[in-house]
Amino acid sequence: AKNAGRNAVCFFDPEMQAVATANATLATDLRQAWRENQFLIDYQPQVGADGRMSGVEALLRWRHPHRDLVAPADFISTAEETSLIIPIGRWVLEQACAQLAEWARRPDRRHLSIAVNVSVRQFRHPDFVDEVMTAIADAGIAPHKLKLELTESLLAEGIEVTVAKMGSLKDMGVTLSLDDFGMGYSSLSYLKRLPLDQLKIDKAFVKDILTDANDAAIARTIIGLAQSLGLSVIAEGVETREQRDFLAQQGCLEYQGYLFCKPLPIEELEQFIDRQAG
Ligand code: C2E
Ligand code: CA
Ligand code: CA
Ligand code: CA
């Protein structure tokens, strides 16, 4: 990338230039990371009201050779822009299905589900539904154990296309969860049309749920909405007992957050499951 500046568009704003250079470097690094298998998956437990694990969320990690772990927030958008999210996302999906297949053979683990984050770019790809079908078939797993976490931003594509695609996934038996609900611009009339199984309350609303009346009201509304639409509801970013208790009072009976467990590499997750059982 040393000589890239010579042929690049000329920026007059040095700050913009810096950002553009950083993005180009990140894109190059990401491509290399993908070639060299630098990606990992951590798994974070999701637990029910009885504290029992119901499943995990798969969270992508990038182990850069010369940096600390890079947070997904710092590379997902570049992965989207470069389309690298397509092969990376497929890999996460395949890993999750392989893990589910392994757990299906173990009586103490076969009840667990795995939630996989799906980016907009990935969802829009014409092969996405086929890829999900292939991943499930190749692993030989029960489709409902795979939970896809979708976001409201999918609706920007147009409601008809989104509903149709979600319908195909639903027909396959996959579980569908709406992630970061309340953060975007989805209208309630849209929500009614989406073939969902679950709403996920974003950690942004959970954080100050005990002190911010607006956040509490939003959480309550999401829970009520889920109940009236016949959907399950899970809260993420639950860090304290008080938050958990408040959510439980409002009728949210599934949780994810540091109170229970942080995202763990698979070996540590397996130990966590064993400790919970024993
Ligand atoms: P998300 O889907 O909303 O995931 C929840 C984030 O909250 C994760 O951040 C998780 O580590 C963090 N978290 C969990 N418990 C707590 C808690 O108690 N308190 C707080 N403050 N945070 C908690 P992470 O792992 O950095 O992931 C960030 C985002 O990156 C995810 O947000 C998701 O949008 C995206 N992402 C992660 N993995 C993938 C992937 O495989 N594919 C795609 N497309 N996106 C991914
Ligand atoms: Ca998620
Ligand atoms: Ca979230
Ligand atoms: Ca998020």
TrEMBL record:
<feature type="domain" description="EAL">
    <location>
        <begin position="23"/>
        <end position="277"/>
    </location>
</feature>
<protein>
    <submittedName>
        <fullName>EAL domain-containing protein</fullName>
    </submittedName>
</protein>
